[in-house]
Amino acid sequence: MADNREFFYRRLHSLLGVIPIGLFLMQHLTVNFFSTYGPEAFNNAAGFMENLPLRLGLEIFVIYLPLLFHAIYGVFIAFTAEPNTIRYGFFRNWMFLVQRITGILTLIFIAWHVWETRLANAIYGTEINFDLMASILSDPIMFWFYIIGVVSAVFHFANGLWSFFVTWGLTISPKSQLVMTYITIAIFAVFTYMGISSLIAFAS
Amino acid sequence: MAEATKTKTIKFIITRQDSPDSQSYEEEFEIPYRKNMNVISALMEIRRNPVNAKGEETAPVNWEMGCLEEVCGACSMVINGKPRQSCTALIDQLEQPVRLEPMNTFPVVRDLEVDRRRMFDSLKKVKAWTPIDGTHDLGPGERMAESRRQWAYELSKCMTCGVCLEACPNVNSNANFIGPAALSQVRLHNATPNGSLHKAERMAAVTGDGGLQNCGNSQNCVQSCPKGIPLTTSIAALNREATVQSFKSFFGSDHNQ
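Output (structure tokens, whole complex):
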């Protein structure tokens, strides 16, 4: 086991992408969806998350550390591939390529998003509420940046979940993998809808 | 009729390379058409009369071949953008000009001939064989259910041709991934009664450096395999085996077969 770090790192990368990062993403988009019910509903929902006990510990172990590992190792994985979708235009090969592109886009988006919300709060004491998001998203460039970021993140999660099921040997047969393709498409559709509606609610 | 076939020709654009380290270049050929030609008989025609499309004398095109019936894998090359065996690539079914390129994932020896040594090294690395020799008679092997034998036979059709490695985006000069072919052979040998005695050793090798974990699920291999081997099913099955094995070795007792 000691001389076999690669297998461990790869499996850890796959696991962390779903647990906890994927779970956090779904929770985050669910809380954000309260923005469609109005500013007060959103502020209450976000306030509930903000006041969770041991918040900093949760943030460090559920978000920051897993995300850092997943991101850094993921960039390494993405850049060791040599995409060949022009010659092999199969569906899964496109998913392979888009998974790597959305991974990089999501990393850029999250870095910016964490800077302007969580880090701004920690450094400058910026209050995180409906108005903060409304002012960020009133700029059309930022609005589209957020749209691209959210769609990338949700795609990366949904397609990554499909890979997770193969990587851990849960879906082996082509049939089970196909069913999982449909399930992950549904997950992508639901959370993309939730993410985009939240952004529209903040912006309008 | 004889007049018509005489004037009919086949155009080729061949990617050539004079030595392992030299630059590749394209050369065009135009050869007379005959009925029922395959890419190999066309290459033989070029060898018989090595003159390119401009009418210049040139070195004959080099390629590798063996069985001529798609079971040895030696004559694999990229034909019109698709890696496949040139023996079963029939001229009548190919769009012209026919483009021939070497499988670039492997080091090019000369012209269309590549060095597939890494595949054979991988088979050794993952112990893709079943040891049956001993210092004494080990007796007959255990019987296998017929249905299982038929299933295993499909996996045994692998001819180490290299098409799956050529198609895989994760097999390249940046990575040392052993590729789908050797992984599927591990599944085959693990699945037979005698081979299963050495399953733990193979699993250790296959989860080692450059192993199973490098698969990125692009699934080009299963789409490209000329023998229709269920490569991605083999990879997912090994993934499950590796999951079970790693849980056993972490939480289990001191002996985990």
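The longest helix of chain A spans residues 91-124.
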